[in-house]
Amino acid sequence: MNGARTARTVAVTGLGLVTPAGVGVEETWQRVCSGRPTAADDPELAGSPVGFSCRVGKFDPREHTGGTQPWRYDRFTQFALAAAREAVDDAALDPDTWDGARVAVVLGSAAGGVATYEKQHHKLLTTGHRAVSPLTLPAFLPNMAAGRLAIDLGVHGPVLQTGTACASGATALVTAAMLLDSDACDIAVAGGSDAMATPLCATAFARAGALSRGKGGPAGACRPFDAARDGFVLAEGAGVLVLERLADATARHASVRSLLAGHGSSTDAHHPVAPRPDGRCLRDATEQALDRAGAGHADVDHVNAHGTGTPLNDSTEAAVLRELYAPDGPTVTSTKGVTGHMMGAAGAVEAALTVLTVQRQTVPPTANFDRADAGTSGLDIVRPAAREHPVELALSNSCGFGGHNVVLAFARAPTARGA
């Protein structure tokens, strides 16, 4: 890998996570590395075609959002606020003293405050217009989490929302890196948040044939790359990263977790929900990310795969991985076996987990992967436990309905922060 660093190299200086695996980075990391799935029966989905999900547990919005009237916010905004606060604190930044005009917020979401929308629409139909909350729009509009973060953190620079379905969080990180590169900001608070474990979303995904039916019970339902996979498990959560130019982070003596060394984006232009069968555009996004990182195929030590557990996605992604790296390819994992699919938050959460993999030289396992089929064989899929493994460069893949592909390349920092 080309070791040259420029003033535009992007450093990851802070992480924040709210996931079904835990509230906070450490709790999430430990659960993901344990390989214990979080899927469980969900009372809120009772009567839906699939009645289980991966929920964020033990989350008190008053504690994690500063007590600023959290009932005004949809759950996806509450998650985003909590994750962002943790990330900014982890980066040792103080919103009371930074120049807010030089800070950006970029947050991805696939659906925004869809739970608010469903509840208020139900009130409109059953009770009438006077029952609809005047806070409905500020709660459910997709940009409002980013807007709330700006208010909470005192940000006056670019504040954007990205929407590329399940790649939204990864697209937010790409956008943030571009803002840093263009000198539109000095600090970017970026990631994704979604809370789509709702009756409407669960029913719609089930009707589309995308959800696992969990024949062996919820815990074994999400089976990335496994021969018995039959769909993903709906989840919720948020992931936020603080990005800075490496030169700026070094100047303020910040601890750098890893480098966002490259990124690539492409679109299949093939089908609204199915991946392009030949995987060409996912491969193109990978090549873009490696080119920006000054790296080649042989430099990739690990891939955090999109790995949803659906038959089409996993076989297509596996074929691309085999083509690019076989026969002695990188370690591969899908953390969705533990967390479920957090939709627009997935790309950001998995980016954070990839940063931790690089930083701690440990690859989490792929829960519920027992047996490969012809479409997924030939990959070094880590199981049944986390594996200590040298990782200098790792990729995080994200794909979304609409044909979106995003690949992020994370490299070990020159002086990596310890565990």
Total helix count? 13
Give the mean pLDDT: 94
Shape: globular
- Secondary structure category: alpha/beta
For the secondary structure, the number of strands is 16
β-strand amount: 15-25%
In helices, the fraction of residues equals 25-40%
- Whole-Å distance between the termini? 24 Å
CATH class of the largest domain: Alpha Beta
Q: Give the tally of structural domains.
A: 2
Low-confidence stretches: 2-7
CATH architecture assignment of the largest domain: 3-Layer(aba) Sandwich
Layout of helices and strands:
Layout: E1 10-19, E2 22-23, H1 25-34, E3 40-41, E4 52-53, H2 61-64, H3 75-90, E5 103-108, H4 114-126, H5 136-140, H6 144-153, E6 159-162, H7 168-181, E7 187-195, H8 199-207, E8 236-245, H9 246-251, E9 258-267, H10 280-293, E10 302-304, H11 311-325, E11 331-333, H12 336-339, H13 346-360, E12 362-363, E13 380-381, E14 387-388, E15 393-400, E16 404-411
Parallel strand pairs: 5-6, 5-7, 10-11, 10-15, 11-13
Antiparallel strand pairs: 1-2, 1-8, 1-9, 3-4, 7-8, 9-16, 12-14, 15-16
Helix pairs in contact: 3-6, 7-13
Features:
single chain, alpha/beta, Peroxisomal Thiolase, Chain A, domain 1, 12-stranded mixed β-sheet, two-stranded antiparallel ribbon, 13 helices
In short:
With 419 residues, the chain is α/β, with parallel strands linked by helices. The protein is built from 13 helices and 16 strands.
Descriptive report:
With 419 residues, this protein is of the alpha/beta class. The protein folds into two domains: 10-251, Peroxisomal Thiolase, Chain A, domain 1, CATH 3.40.47.10; 262-411, Peroxisomal Thiolase, Chain A, domain 1. 32% of the residues lie in helices and 20% in strands. Strand 10, helix 11 and strand 11 (331-333) form a beta-alpha-beta unit. Helix 3 crosses helix 6 (144-153) and helix 7 (168-181) crosses helix 13 (346-360). Residues 2-7 have low confidence and may be disordered.
